[in-house]
Amino acid sequence: MVGLAVLAGSVACGGKPAPAPNPVANSRPAAQLDAAPAASPNYTKLSGELAAFADAMCACKTKACAQKVSDDMSKWSASNETTHTSFDNLSPDEQTNVDDLGSRMGDCMQKIK
Q1: Within a 10 A sphere around the Cβ of 54, how many other Cβ atoms?
Q2: pLDDT tens-digit profile of 51-101?
Q3: Are 102 and 94 in contact (CB under 8 A)?
Q4: DSSP one-letter code for 42
Q5: 26 in a structural domain
Q6: 89: Cβ–Cβ under 8 A, 6 or more apart, which residues?
C-alpha cells in the first residue's frame, strides 16, 4: 500500500515512473560469437615455418634431400627451444593443424626410397 502511495504521489507531482531497466543477457552478443579467436602467440609464425618444412620434405626425391630437411628442422626446433618460442597453449583447431602438418611430412618421408 505504501508503494502505491509513493507511485501516486510521484505521478501527481508531475513525475514520471522510472523507465524499465535494460534486460540482462545471459549470452554473448552475436558479433562476439561469430568472431574467430585470435591465434595463439607464435602460432602463425611457427605453423608457417612447419608448413615450409613439410613442403620441402614432400618435394624431396632422394634420401639425402629428406635427411637435409630433417636436419634443418632439428636445428629449427632446437633454436625455438632456446628462444622459448614454442607451440604451447594452442587451441584445439591450431593443434589439429600442427598435427596434420606433421602427418603430411611423415607421409612424404615414407614415400622416399
Answers
A1: 22
A2: 999 999 999 999 999 999 999 999 988 887 776 666 777 788 888 998 999
A3: no
A4: T
A5: no
A6: 40, 41
One DSSP character per residue, 47-91 reads HHHHHHHHHHHHH--SHHHHHHHHHHHHHHHHHHHHTT---TT--
SS3 44: helix
- For residue 42, give the C-alpha cell: 607464435
Under DSSP, the state recorded for 24 is P
| Counted domains in the chain | 1
Q: Is residue 18 part of a domain?
A: no
Please name which of 39, 61, 36 lies closest in space to residue 48, comparing C-alpha atoms: 39
Domain that holds residue 76: 61-111
Place of cell 606433421: 102
